[in-house]
Each structure stands twice: as C-alpha cells, then as structure tokens.
Amino acid sequence: MKERAIDNEIKLIPYYRNDEVSLPWYQDLDVCKQVDNRDEPYTLELLHCMYDFLSTHGDCFYIEYKGVLVGDVSLRDNAEVAIVICKEYQNRHIGRRCVPDMLTLAREKGMKTVKQMSIPLISKVR
After folding, report:
1. At 61, phi and psi to the nearest 5?
2. What is the reported pTM?
C-alpha cells in the first residue's frame, strides 16, 4: 500500500501505529458517538484491536490535511467504507473529498458497490 494524493491539501497515508495522534480522536465522546454510537471513549487496547482489524481486513489510511494527521479512512474487504475526522477538523469537507478516491480504490479492487459505515455519501461505485 502506498500514499494516495487526494488534492493539494489532502493525502492518505497507509496506517502505521501512531497512538499519540490517533488515541485522542477516539477518546472524544462526540466522535465515539458518531463513529460507533458509543458512550465511552476507546481504550488503547480497543484502538489497537480496531486498527489491527481494519488493516488486516482491507486498506486503512490516515488522512493528512495540510501536513497534519486529522483522521482515518478505511475500505474493508467486504466493501464497507468508514471515514473518521477528529472534531477540530470536521466541517471542512475533508472526508467528503476522500470519497472519490475510496470509490476509485474499490474499483481497483474489483468491487461493484461499497457500503457506508459512518458517512451518508457513499452509495455505490460509479
């Protein structure tokens, strides 16, 4: 897996363990509610389990926006797409701008459709 350029501000970086950056995203209760409908923050163990699962059952990337890691996006082998943006960077259309590339990646993998996990934009591969 290699980096994927989205535009001049956003690129997707293949997942690597980076607890210092990613754990705070999943300790924000609003983000946990959006992502998993959880009322509790992720523990480090749960974070590792989640990322280990996503990275072994599909493609998982960090989203880099203007040089800062701000979230993650994954395309699972079962064609589910999930995008998570930390609260500080939400409402800037960062996730929305990643969707076309996830659809391209799905096509590259031979997927005919994709399913949404946490965003309402994805209905099918065009």
Report:
1. -130, 150
2. 0.88
Q: How far is CA 3 from CA 36, 91, 108, 116, 122, in A?
A: 27, 24, 15, 22, 22
CA-CA distance, 113 to 15, in Å (whole number)? 23
For 15, 35, 40, 114, 115, the CA distances from 63, given in Å and listed in that order, are 9, 16, 24, 19, 20
Q: Domains, the chain, ranges and CATH? A: 4-116 (3.40.630.30)
Cβ atoms of 80 and 64 closer than 8 Å:
no
Residue whose token pair is 């996830």: 102
Nearest alpha carbon to residue 71 among 45, 110, 102 = 102
pLDDT digits (tens, 9 = 90+) for 6-40: 999 999 999 999 999 999 999 999 988 888 888 99
Helix ranges (DSSP H) in 1-126: 19-25, 29-36, 44-56, 94-108
25 alpha carbon, distance to own chain's centre: 12
Q: What is the CA radius of gyration of the chain?
A: 14
The owner of tokens 């990337």 is 61
